[in-house]
Each structure stands twice: as structure tokens, then as C-alpha cells.
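Q: Sequence in, structure out?
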Amino acid sequence: MKPSGRDWGLVAPAQLLLTVLLFVPSLYVFWLSLTTSTYGQSPVWAGFANYATVLSDPYFWTATLNTAIVVNAVVFGEFLLALAVAMLFAGWIPWRRVMIAVVLAPYAISEVVAVVIFKYMTEPYAGPVTLALRAIGLPTLDWAVEPSHGLAMVVLLSIWHHLPFTFILLYTALLGIPRELYEAAQVDGAGAWRKFRHITVPLLVPAMLVALVFRYIFAFRIFSEVWLLTGGGPARTTEVLAVYLYRQAFRYSDFGAAAATGWLMLLASLLMGSWYIWQMYRRMFAHGRA
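A: Exactly. Output:
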């Protein structure tokens, strides 16, 4: 069924809002990326020189690699943990309402407060978590000095803070699966693994794709955790693309290079999430076309 003029009229206000708030600023940023611009100076046309400068900067590629590592570790680590917790809650768990509130609590904490809590808990010399790990003979996270430890801290912090988002999507989808399907499978002699593989996973795919797409989009823009925890250091070895963009714009006052970085981030995020977007469209919308 093709949309009518009345249908277009109903969605026109939302489309106009998106155009004003997203499309027009995006075009301006793209134009800015083709100029040389800084404080107190009118933009001067530079073509694709900013893109060439950014792509030839080794710090950009370090930030790109760090971003890819952090984003994939966060998205898939958070997804697997959220799925396990959602399966647990969909079964039997005591004090369900209290436990759900506990799982959702991190989402009520601002990123700044979350970073402060993690920095205190894992302080390399006197943090409670550090002292506990030393007491049982396990290695500690020296995130202030070791780049890999710093990125690991960022991953752990982001997973803890954003787990409620993925959990609530998967948990509500699990609750929507008819119990009769599991009962019929039980009668047919299916075990827990077969139920999960042939009933739970296929019916959860739409919710999984939505969760993965949104978390890819949000995680790719990760900034606060890295900036407040390590500042991109030591020696810019834990820098991610959002921090690199921030330095270009507000530390070096190179707005053209910062805008070019922003557009490269957009293209990279689309490339990383394109498969999930296509699968979501194919499974959820393509069948409804006239």
C-alpha cells in the first residue's frame, strides 16, 4: 500500500524537525570540512585538504583502532551479558522487582559520576578493588600508565553504565514470546539448548538487531568515559575518535579538520552498522512493502 498525501502530511512535522535539527547542520559541517577555519578567521576554501591531513595523521589511525576495539568489545560484551541476565530474569529469580531496579540503577547515574566512582574504586594504589585483587593475588588494572588497561577500564565502565538499555530491550522481547511454544517443545522432548536455539533466538532476532544497531551508534560516539578517565593518555595511546575530534576543534582550534573527522566518523559508523541495519530492515520492514 502506497502512502497517501494525508499520510505524508501527518509525518511532515517530524520530517521537518529532523531536517532542521539534523540534515541542515550536517550539510554545514560537511561544508566546514572543506574549508580552513579557526577562531576569528573567515572560512577559506580548502577542498579535501582537511581529509588528506587527517588521514595522514598517525594519531587519527591510533584513535580509529582504539575506537574499533572499544566499540566492538563494549557492544558484544554488553549484548552477551544483557542476554544472559534477561534469560535469568525471564525464568525464576527471587525478589524480581528489586533485582530489576538494581540492574537498571546504573542508567540513572551520569557518566561523570560513574567515572568518578570507577576511578575511586580502581585507584592504582589505594582503591578498594585494587586492594581486593592484590589480596587474592590477581593482577590489578594500572589504567593510568598502561594503555591496554586504560582501554579495558573504558570497556568495563561503558558496559556497566549502559547494560540497562540492552537488558530492557531483550527482557521485554523475551516476555513477549508465547509460553505455549516452550510447552509444546517440552512435550516434543526438546532440551534447554534446543529451546533456546530454535525458539528464543529466532523470535529475539528483531530485538537483538535493534539493540545492536543502537548500541553501535551510541558506543561509536564514546567520549566522556575516555576523556574523564585517561584524557586519551598516556601519550594519546588511549585516544578514541571523539577525543581526537575534540582536540582538533578545541585544543588546536582547527575546525576544518575537526569537521572532516566528524564526517569520517559518520562514514565509519555507517560501515560498521550497515549489516545490522540491512538485516533489521529485511526482517522487520521489507515484507510490508506493497
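The domain at 77-114+149-285 is CATH 1.10.3720.10 (MetI-like fold).
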